[in-house]
Amino acid sequence: MRSFSTTHAVSWVVLGALFAGLALHRDQAEAGLGEPAQITGYVLFALFVALASFNARKRLSMVPLGRARLWAVVHTFGGVFALALYWLHTQSLWPTGTYEQLLAGLFYLVTLTGILGWLMQRLFPARLTQTGLEIIYERIPHELARVREDAEAIVMDCTRELQSDTLARHYFESLAWFFRRPRFILSHLFGGQHGVHWIHQQRLTVARYLSQRETEYLDALTELGYAKLRLDLHYVLQSAMKKWLLVHVPLSVALLGIALWHLVLVHVYAL
Fold first, then answer.
1. pTM for the whole thing?
2. CA 192 to CA 234: how far, in whole Å?
């Protein structure tokens, strides 16, 4: 951990020194009536290419190109440096021209989605681990269906064995909605406990009308409800991490393409 913190500190120092050098070069070029944005533009475009290569690295995980964690750290620091370098290059937070605004809008969207992805990668794995459940994303729908079938089997057994339909009526009027598909999406996404409170309230609502034997079936049904909440949490968080890439990566490719076109236009008009 200490070695990793040292790596972070060294990275900040190196990036700070590089930024200071580029800022000094820009000032000197501007004072000498040169092209102050030229060197920062080339460095920024090269940084875009380097950052885009991170996705290629993940797709080539079988090739020994260094540890994925190191690549992720470099990608994060590179993204922060790109934001500072962009402001140095443009000398403004928001340009005036339509074409420049398109480029700026894409850049800020890539930056914002990158920050969102960094937060998810930092927070979501720990929350998933706390559930005590390990499951791959593709298996979640099957497990949800199994839990629903088990819940319905408990209700049917209770009705058949005890000749009472109180629990069954409560299930089909209230609980069936919950077991049908993932619920409390926003609560799971932002770390709320709405689902836990809802299940607890449902148990309190019907328990007063049940006999002792029926309460045993209710307890089993409640435990299945908590198990489903854990599956729902995995579904929501894993879905968010997967779908985030479907936004961040296309935006990054679009930004790289527009930046390349911008570089070509600069050279064409410079001739």
1. 0.83
2. 14
Rounded CA separation 94/28 (Å): 24
Please tell me the distance from the alpha carbon of residue 198 to that of residue 200, in angstroms, as a whole number.
Answer: 5
Q: What is the pLDDT of residues 80-122, one digit of tens each?
A: 888 888 888 888 888 887 888 999 999 999 999 999 999 999 9
- What is the C-alpha to C-alpha distance for residues 216 and 224, in angstroms, rounded to an integer? 13
- Contact partners, residue 57, CB within 8 Å, separation at least 6: 65, 66, 68, 71
**Which three-class secondary structure state does DSSP give residue 62?**
coil
Task: Please tell me the total number of residues recorded for the chain in this structure.
Answer: 271
Q: What is the pLDDT of residues 35-53, one digit of tens each?
A: 667 788 888 888 888 888 7
- What are the domain boundaries of the chain? 2-132+246-270, 137-238
**Per-residue tokens: 121:** 């990668």
